[in-house]
Amino acid sequence: MAEKGLADKVRETQVWKSIFRHGPPNNARNRAAVVAGNVFLHLHPIKLKKSGVQLGYTWCMGGLTFFIFLALTVTGVLLMFYYRPTAEYAFNDIIALKEHVPLGIMREIHRWGAHAMVITVWLHMFRVFMTGSYKPPREFNWGVGVILLVLTLLLSFTGYLLPWDQLAIWAIAVGSNMAKATPFAGHGGPGAMLAQIGDFVMVSDKNDVRFQLLAGRFVGEPALLRFYILHCVFIPLVVGVLIAIHFWRVRKDGGISAPL
Amino acid sequence: MKEFINYLADPIRSFPITCILFYFMIRYYKVVGTKKFAWIGGALLVATYGIFALDPNFWLIITWPDNVPISILVFSVAFLTWYSLYKCAENDKRLEAGECPIEALPENREKVWCWPNLVYTELFAIIAGTVFLIGWGILFDAPLEEPANPTWAPNPAKAPWYFLGLQEMLVYFDPWMAGVVLPGLIVVGLIAIPYIDTNPKGNGYFTFAERKMAITAFLFGWLVLWLYLIIVGTFLRGPNWTFYGPFEFWDFHKVVAEYNVNLSEFFWVFGLEMSLPKNLIVRELPGIILTILYLIIPVVIAKWDKCKEMIEKVGYIRYYIYMYLVIIMATLPLKMFLRWLFSLKYIIALPEWELNL
Question: Is the model's pLDDT at B319 over the cut of 70?
Fold first, then answer.
């Protein structure tokens, strides 16, 4: 019998066995066990169609999107330690992030990651369309994907305000001014003046869609708080739930698409 | 030469050019989808971008930190568009010869173990992604301008780059269309795709020949209407949202003589040589009639053989949803051309009701 190496000895310790519960994944039984028995890996099927692992077919863009989402969550949580969403502190905290915080590229990674995620989501959708993967039985999951795409853009958009510099508030001003023109629900949109009873104006700049979005009539401190909470808590929670549904349905609809 | 490129880049010329290039790409996708084309096209693209980058004004635009993703987007979309057409061409040749698509070959249908096949690919992707993000983070500082000042608006004030296609639409539409109705319809339209497109072919493999309509419509929306407008919005729009060529200095004092005329003025003032009627509805009647006529196109052409065929195949509901999505999408290029040809501002102009179309 051959001499046992260090790796084998580690694998035989009680600690290792308590964590992994199965031998090295070099036979069929353990390969199944390693995927099925691990909370992260069990998102995968134990065996899958070859096209599901071919980069030429999948482009890996969905996976990369999820990876970037996780990277953004981690860097985002780190940023939250240093950032206060008030008009008084926000900008200075961003400066401090660069000047005083060790390894101060978290904001860079977060911002570039956000841009990269928008790109990878688009490319993922591009691939899914070109391979016809939205066709039955995957119609519903395509819809979930479209909602996730919109939420990705909204995440990026709400985060754009947080540095509280000129770029931020004016980009959001341009964007939120569109909400003003929402038909019937924005005070500058068509139909808003129909919602008027005598002198009582039902849709005004004090209660229309833009007001709800910005918590005010212009991009001010209340908007900063609102965008902060949307960006850090609300939208990520919704996205998390939808990602779970998206992945679940990928599995239930038969895994990565392949010719019928 | 630079002058000439500046001249060509104006949407009046570059949009039709893009449409023509798109037509040729679709028409000759089998030529585009060859490796030879990729090498030549790729080399040309990189060379053009490189030569463009030598110009100080273009360099300023592409190195502006939040514009860096657009360069990444341009190159990755160019590559992946070519790559998918390459895969399509490859499969279509096989399908023509009566063979199955490559994805359906027995050796590609076999099942493989998740560990190690997929897990290692993912590990590699995670490492590559981490290195890429950290590298990007070290090389480029995240943009930060002066502290927020609500009393002083920068010129141009631009939305984030991924919304600039929508902001560019503001040139042709009022905010209620460009900012609310059209984006809403994009989302609804995308979700509706699988329910409208009942063609069972091309599920799970690359093919163009088996789903020409679907792919052409999607690629037109994605490449021409979405990406092209984003590029125009970021690279070619300067102060006051005026057009600036790629090599043009953003001179704040550039004056563009632009006088756009409403359809009602065309009709009453220029056509009938009388003053605009006082009554709003009468004044805008030509535009309203035109809009109604436009909106009943799908009903009228439902009698045509091709449409009848489609209705028989997919039913009335799908037919009308598809047609209305298409004709509303078509309003964008239509309005662009009307603006360029006739300086038409609004078809229906009812600023009194905030309803301009």
Answer: yes
Are A32 and A57 within one domain?
no
With 80 as the cut, is the pLDDT of residue A111 above it?
yes
d(CA B198, CA A49): 25
Same domain, A71 and A179: yes
Q: Is residue A91 part of a domain?
A: yes
Residue of B125, B149, B218 with shortest CB distance to A63:
B125
Largest CA distance in chain B: 80
Question: Total structural domains in chain A?
Answer: 2
Q: Which residues pair with A48 in a beta bridge?
A: B112
Q: Where are the alpha helices (DSSP H) in A55-185?
A: 55-58, 61-80, 90-99, 106-130, 139-161, 166-180
CA-nearest residue to A162 within chain B is B148
Using the Cβ of A137 and the Cβ atoms of chain B, whether some distance falls under 8 Å is answered with no
Cβ contact (<8 Å) for B176 and A190? yes
CA distance A258 to B68: 35
Nearest residue of chain B to residue A183 (CA atoms) = B176
Chain B contact for A219, CB < 8 A?
yes
Q: Mean per-residue pLDDT for B327-349?
A: 91
Q: Cβ–Cβ of B108/A108 closer than 8 Å? A: no
- Token pair belonging to A252: 């239930």
Whether residues A125 and A230 fall in one domain = yes
Q: Which tens digits make up the pLDDT trace of B274-296?
A: 888 888 888 889 999 999 999 99
pLDDT, tens digit (0-9, with 9 covering 90-100), for B1-55? 888 999 999 999 999 999 999 999 999 999 999 999 999 999 999 999 999 999 9
Task: Find chain B residues with C-beta within 8 A of A48's C-beta.
Answer: 111-112, 114, 118
User: At residue B24, what is the residue type?
Assistant: F
User: What is the pLDDT confidence band of residue B351, given thresholds at 50, 70 and 90?
Assistant: confident
Residues 6+ apart with CB under 8 A from B334: none
More reliable by pLDDT, B138 or A260: B138
Q: Determine whether the interchain pair A48/B66 forms a contact, defined as Cβ–Cβ distance below 8 Å.
A: no
A227 vs B: CB within 8 A = no
User: A165 and A203 in one domain?
Assistant: yes
A3 lies in the same domain as A23:
yes
Chain B CB contacts of A183 below 8 Å? 176, 180-181
Whether residues A43 and A57 share a domain: the answer is no
User: Considering chain B, what percentage of its residues have pLDDT values greater than 70?
Assistant: 100
Q: Which amino acid is at B54?
A: L
Instruction: Give the pLDDT confidence of A77-108 residue by residue, as tens digits.
Output: 999 999 999 999 999 999 998 888 877 889 99
Show the beta-strand stretches assigned E in chain B: 111-113, 349-350, 355-356
Which residue segment(s) compose the domain that A61 sits in?
A: 48-252
Residue in A with minimal Cα distance to B203: A132
Among A72, A94, A111, A219, the residue to mutate for chain B (most B Cβ within 10 A): A111
Interface A-B, measured as beta-carbon pairs within 8 A, has a size of 280
pLDDT confidence tier of residue A179, bands split at 50, 70 and 90: confident
Which of B176, B181, B207 to probe the A interface (max A CBs under 10 A)? Answer: B176
If asked whether residues A26 and A111 sit together in one domain, one would say no
Pair B336, B252: CB distance under 8 Å: no
